[in-house]
């Protein structure tokens, strides 16, 4: 039996964050290198790791993001190996390396606490799609883990001459320097989006990338972990 399971054993640590399979991230925890992670995302850990729900930094920076139904982030600190997952979703690990990324709040699994970050509602979308979307701006030197409902595609917006349109329920992340606006489409409503017969998209233009997941199921965006 042990030989049959050997292929699933942990691999040697190679980086601060790395994938273990498609749907899990392994994080090398060290004292002084705290981590913010989605509440309830811990599936296993080795060593000594402590967790603090709704830490002061989150209350100060992301107060509007926290609802009465639950807290979106916890702080993890200590020494050891930490494994995170989100209901079997694909996990994408990124080393920002001094660059910046804007992430849909529901697709944010974990990030280094030392990164510069802030939370804001995506402008220009609420009037089209009702509740709008929360995005998290991340930047600096550090690691980020995102979730995707299936293997994502990264679209290069190119020179900015043409706009790139994305269903809000399929949006994962984008370059913060891109221009973003909402668009309502009637002619495409039978092919794009779901629900009322009207299709809503986010239009991106400029230099940068957009990360899109192969899912339009908005139920994931409304789920709050306990």
From TrEMBL:
Gene3D superfamilies: Mitochondrial biogenesis AIM24. It comes from the Bacteria. SUPFAM superfamilies: TRAP-like (SSF51219). InterPro entries: AIM24, AIM24_sf, Trp_RNA-bd_attenuator-like_dom. This is AIM24 family protein. It comes from Streptomyces monticola.
